[in-house]
Amino acid sequence: DETSICNCCKDCCGTFNLWKKGTMPMINWSNYLSNIDQDLCIGCGTCVERCPTDAIELNDDGKAERNPDICIGCGVCAHFCPENAISLLSGVRKVFVPPPKIK
Questions:
Q1: Whether residue 44 has pLDDT greater than 60
Q2: Kind and range of the H or E element at 17?
Q3: Best label site of 1, 7, 15, 102, fewest CB within 10 Å?
């Protein structure tokens, strides 16, 4: 069974705070990548709010869509999805997410 790798609040986690402040990039070896079932997604936006790297957005159809380049495979989106529309795919990969631009 898949489980979330991390359940940190993206506003409370020290690592994510350093990344959000532009201090460092997020470099992560991940064994997972989120997979969104478009037929089950109702477009509630819970995953968008919970994703610590902002890798999920709602598309023009109002459904969640994941950017695989910045998904770190933490599983927070899958854990909180009320429709169980998100699962985790296995596969080792390196993820490099540059820090967001400071405004």
A1: yes
A2: helix 14-20
A3: 1
